[in-house]
């Protein structure tokens, strides 16, 4: 029987989602924990990949479990996993749906704070920039849904069959004090480090070091910038994954609910 697992994790202590040799990944920790509980080797397949130290406030993976589950797996799994990983739902699926290939939309949030705060440092990226022009930043963010090819905002475009991304939404928000910024983007797919590279360029626009025309030229000409300079990983969250047959509200909303009362569109 195939099951979908609805989870969230803090990524600061992991080398990303995907299992890799000699490093700690979210996938490896979950596979080892599930295999121990079920007393049989379990392989899981995630809805995507996140970089080292990147978070997910909503994430799905699927697993095929051939043993009968006659106990509260959700409770036992959450007790066995570290505090940085939470499982919200375990859903028995019909047929063989795929957590990665069946997703039709993924949403990401990127958070920036412009003052030093020890309680935000593991949840948001600190950029000591007191005079960011958020209105210019918003102008370039508004360009993103108008373009489809994001070859210029990818570390290794040649590894993909194509670099087309159907960006459906993009927005820039600030908090009531104007010293925290939130970049929001939704697409059917994303390229390697695409959001962090975009955020790096958006911050340059805010600092006056990159013009709107220069930013748009990357989208038009598809030329990779000489310096990609991805933004820090800590502020990035995979925050929503949608399937044709499954659309669950994220359970973790302390930072990433788009309709949050403390965030305002620029």
TrEMBL record:
InterPro entries: PsdUridine_synth_cat_dom_sf (IPR020103), PsdUridine_synth_TruA (IPR001406), PsdUridine_synth_TruA_a/b_dom (IPR020097), PsdUridine_synth_TruA_C (IPR020095), TruA/RsuA/RluB/E/F_N (IPR020094). Its EC number is 5.4.99.12. The active site is at 51 (nucleophile). It catalyses: uridine(38/39/40) in tRNA = pseudouridine(38/39/40) in tRNA. Residues 8-84, 148-244 form the Pseudouridine synthase I TruA alpha/beta domain. Keywords: Isomerase, tRNA processing. Pfam families: PseudoU_synth_1. GO terms for molecular function: tRNA pseudouridine(38-40) synthase activity. Substrate binds at residue 108. Belongs to the tRNA pseudouridine synthase TruA family. Homodimer. Formation of pseudouridine at positions 38, 39 and 40 in the anticodon stem and loop of transfer RNAs. This is tRNA pseudouridine synthase A. It comes from Pedobacter lithocola. The lineage of its organism: Bacteria, Pseudomonadati, Bacteroidota, Sphingobacteriia, Sphingobacteriales. The gene is truA.
